[in-house]
Amino acid sequence: MTVAEGIPEDAMQRLSHMQPEGKTPLFTSDLSVNEFLLVREAGFRPLGLVLGSSIYHVGFQLARWGRNQELDVLSTAMYHARELAMTRMEAEADVLGADGIVGVRLDIEFKEFGSDLAEFIAVGTAVKAEKPGEWRNNTGKPFTSDLSGQDFWTLVQAGYAPLGMVMGTCVYHIAHQRFWKAVGNIGQNVEIPQFTQALYDARELAMARMQAEAEQLAAEGIVGVQLLSLPHRWGGHTTEFFAIGTAVKPLRADHTIAKPQLVLPLTD
Question: Which family does the similarity line name (predicted)?
Fold first, then answer.
């Protein structure tokens, strides 16, 4: 049913049709017209739409009613499922001989045929550089980026290259307030320290894990970071904090960004 890296046979046939012998290749892309033209202007040729999917059973973990705590079983499930989808998308790009994938979307959809089943899907446009260069990251995989076509063009023009999408996740249970404590807060402006601490800790765990991925890619930094709170179906006191961005590096070790020239208005 499947081939190497978990790519279905039907997907392999679709990819092979994008590289017909003796004919001009046909590409598919989810880039807008403006994004497509800017990616071409940046020196990259779209090869085709690539995707990876994983339908995953998310397990169950009990949490103490009055305690802030990470639910590591759920954190691991959410991370592993996304990683499967991303890896399969990268494998499709490899089949096309791509240097990278731009405009990546990473989505989750819980299915009606199973309350604990979710589809994790990664979709993007595989691209190849017009001129030879070291565009793949230090793991040997095509770079991935969730930047828009406009931001991708700006990044390359400034002398930087994307290395890969990096992410960190943390599923966290936020402790309930004791009854009399909650009653005492009625009608008052007052901080709830245990809620503040829970959200702070959960976000920090997600951010730290994202940064650790960037360090493994030897990145200079991460751009376009999003820090999301995703409740999914776990109830009001359990949520996932998800951090994601694009790790980048300079194209040259001695790279500096040129300062913009000051243009004075003409006067009579």
Answer: Belongs to the UPF0145 family.
